[in-house]
Amino acid sequence: KEFIFILEKINNGYPIEYIFREVEFFSDTFYIEEGVLIPRDDTEVVVERAINLINNLQTSNDNVKVVDCCTGSGIIAIEIAKHTNAKVIATDISKKALKVASINVKKHNVDVEVKKCDLFNEVADVLVANPPYVEISHKKPNVYEPDIAFFAGDDGLDIIKKIILKAKELEYKIAVIEIGYNQKESLSNFLTKKVKKFDFFNDLAGNVRGVEIIF
Ligand code: GLN
Fold it and tell me: Whose Cα sits closest to atom 6 in ligand 1?
C-alpha cells in the first residue's frame, strides 16, 4: 500500500527527494524536506568556482571568511567548509531552511555557523549565494517547492541586486552568485558602474549560470 501511495505521488510530480528526504549534490548525500529548495546539479559549477577562488585567496594563517546567504539546505556552505580552510557562515530567512541546513551541518560534521538573517549583516571576504532569481511572471519551476526560494520581482534580479549592494557596502572582496540563464545583459548593465570586475560563467549545459564579482 505504501509503495502504491509513493508511486502515485511521484506520478503527480511530487519530488522523490522529498519522499525519501535525501538528495545527492557534489558527490555527497544531504538531508532535504518539503519547504526547502531541492539542490540542483547546476549549482555545482557555482560551488567549484567559489572553492577555487577561496583557495587562491587563502595565503597565510588568516582564514578567509565566507558568507553563504540564502543557504537553503546548506549545501554550498558545507561543500566550501569541506574543501577549503575558510570560516563559513550560512544565513537564511526561512526557519525551515535553517533547520534543514543545521541537520546537514551535523550530518557532515563541518564547522559552519547557521544564522537566521534577511540576507546578511556579517563583514567577510567572500559572498556566495544561490538566491531566488526567477521572474515573477515565470511558471513556477516546481509547484511543490517553496515560492520564497524562486521568485525575486519582475526581472528576477531584486534579491541579487540587494546582495551585491550589501556586499559592496560591507567591503567584501569577491562574490560568486548563481543567476538565471537570461540575466547576463541586465546584470552587466547594473554591475558596470558598481564594481571593479565581473565575469559570467556557464553551467555544464552551456547556459549562463553564475557571475563572479571583484569589488
Ligand atoms: N535553478 C532553479 C530552477 O530554475 C531556480 C533556483 C533559484 O531561483 N535560485 O529550478
Answer: 150
Q: DSSP of the chain, one letter per residue?
A: -HHHHHHHHHHTT--HHHHHTEEEETTEEEE--TTSPPP-TTHHHHHHHHHHHHHHH--SSS--EEEEES-TTSHHHHHHHHHS--EEEEEES-HHHHHHHHHHHHHTT--EEEEE-SS-----SEEEE----B-TTSPPS-TTS-GGGTB-STTS-HHHHHHHHHHHHTT-SEEEEE--TT-HHHHHHHHHTT-SEEEEEE-TTSSEEEEEEE-
Which residues form the pocket of ligand 1, taking CB atoms under 6 Å from any ligand atom? 40, 42, 130, 132-134, 141, 150
* pLDDT given for residue 13 in this prediction: 92
For residue 60, what pLDDT is reported? 67
pLDDT in tens, 152-188: 999 999 999 999 999 999 999 999 999 999 999 999 9
The reply to whether the predicted model has a pTM over 0.90 is yes
